[in-house]
Amino acid sequence: MNIDGKPYRTIWLNRDGTSVEIIDQTKLPHRFETVTLRTLDDAARAISTMQVRGAPLIGATAAYGVALALRGDASDEALDHACEVLAATRPTAINLRWALDEMQKAVRNQPRDKRVAAAFARAAAICEEDVETNRRIGEHGLGIIRAHAEKKGGATVNILTHCNAGWLACVDWGTALAPIYRAHDEGIKVHVWVDETRPRNQGASLTAWELGHHGVPHTVIADNTGGHLMQHGLVDLVIVGADRVTAQGDVCNKIGTYLKALAAHDNKVPFYVALPSPTIDFTVSDGLAEIPIEQRAPGEVANMTGKTRDGRIETVQIVPDGSPVANYAFDVTPARLVTGLITERGVIAADRAALAQTFPERAEVRPKSNRKVS
Ligand code: MRU
C-alpha cells in the first residue's frame, strides 16, 4: 500500500540481506518509524510488544525471526530454540505456529551450510504468499460489497469493522480491509465504521490511519456504538478478520468481536469474517473450549497513550490507583453467528464441511482424537 505516495509493505528484507525492517506499529498513528530486526530476540520482542501485530504479520515476522536466529547458529538445537521462543510470544493467532512449522519443514532437512539461505528464502516466500492470498480475499470480498451496492442502487455501502485487519496486520492488502480497498478503487461508494478497539485502539490508531491514507471515507466510533448503528439501519454489513478459525468455523478474533456478531445477528446484518487459510486451525473444533485466549498486561487497560495539544506523545492512567484490571485480548464468535468466511478460495459457509472441502490439504491434518479408530 502507499504511504504519502510511497509503496510500503509492513516487513521487508534490507539490502544487506541479513536484517529485516518493520514498521513500528506502536508509534502509529502519530509517528511513522521503522525498526531493524537483527536477531531472534529482536523479532520475538517486536511480536510480544506488538511493534508488529495482526495474525498474518506475526507469522511473517516469526518466519524471519527463525532465519535471523540461524545466522548465529544453524544447528538443530538453535532451530528448535528459535521456534520455542517465537511460539511463546503470542498464544492465540495460529498463523504464528503455522509459520514456524513451515520454517521447520524448509530448514530441518537442509545441510547446515544451506540452512540460513533456505530460511530466508522460505520467510520471503511466506510474505509473498500472504500478499497474493490477501489480494484474492479482496477479489472475493469485492463481490459481496458490489452486491450490496447494487441492492442499494449505488448508494454508499456502510461497513463496520473491528480492530485492524488491514494491510498493517498482514504483509500487504489486509484481510477484512482488502475487499474495502478493492471496492473503493473500483469506484463503489463505501464508508467504514471503525471500532476504536480498546484497550490498544487498533481501530482508532491503525485502521483509521490506513483508510485515511488510502482515501477511504470512514468514521471512528466508540466500541459500544455498533449495536445502536445496526438498530438504526446504518450498517449494511460487518467484515472482521480472525486470529484463528476452528475446523467447525468458530472464529477467534480481537476482544469485542463476539458482541458485534450478536448485535449483527439480532439486526439481520450480514457478519463476514475474512481470513487467509493459515488462520484455520484444523486441530481444534470448539473454539470456546480449545483456543487459548491471550491475557495481556493490565497497563494496556489502565492507561491510554495519545498526542497532547503541543504534539508530545504521553501516557496517562485512566483507572483509580489500585483498581484491579483484566485484559483479555481475544474472544470467540461461534460459527452460527457468522454469515460467511471470505477466503482466498472464495466465500464459504462457516462450517466443517465447507472448510474441509475448500482446504482439503489442510483438513487432513486433524488431531488423533478426531480420527476414526477402527
Ligand atoms: O492483538 P492484535 O492487534 O494482533 O489482534 C489483531 C486482530 O485481532 C485482527 O483482527 C486479526 O489478527 C486479523 S488480522 C488480518
Distance between the termini: 52 Å
As a percent range, the share of helical residues equals: 25-40%
Helix-and-strand structural type: alpha/beta
User: How many extended strands?
Assistant: 18
Task: Report the average pLDDT across residues.
Answer: 96
Proportion of β residues? 15-25%
> Can you tell me the overall shape?
globular
Cross-sheet strand order for the largest sheet: 8-7-6-9-12-17-18
Write the layout of secondary structure elements.
Elements: E1 2-3, E2 6-7, E3 11-13, E4 20-23, E5 34-37, H1 40-48, H2 55-72, H3 76-87, H4 95-107, H5 112-151, E6 157-161, H6 177-185, E7 190-195, H7 202-214, E8 218-221, H8 226-231, E9 237-240, E10 244-246, E11 251-254, H9 257-266, E12 271-274, E13 280-281, H10 287-290, H11 299-302, E14 303-307, E15 313-317, E16 330-333, E17 340-343, E18 346-348, H12 352-358, H13 360-363
Parallel strand pairs: 6-7, 6-9, 7-8, 9-12, 10-13, 12-17
Antiparallel strand pairs: 1-2, 3-4, 4-5, 10-11, 11-16, 14-15, 17-18
Helix pairs in contact: 1-2, 2-3, 2-4, 2-5, 3-4, 4-5, 5-6
Bound molecules: 5-S-methyl-1-O-phosphono-5-thio-D-ribulose.
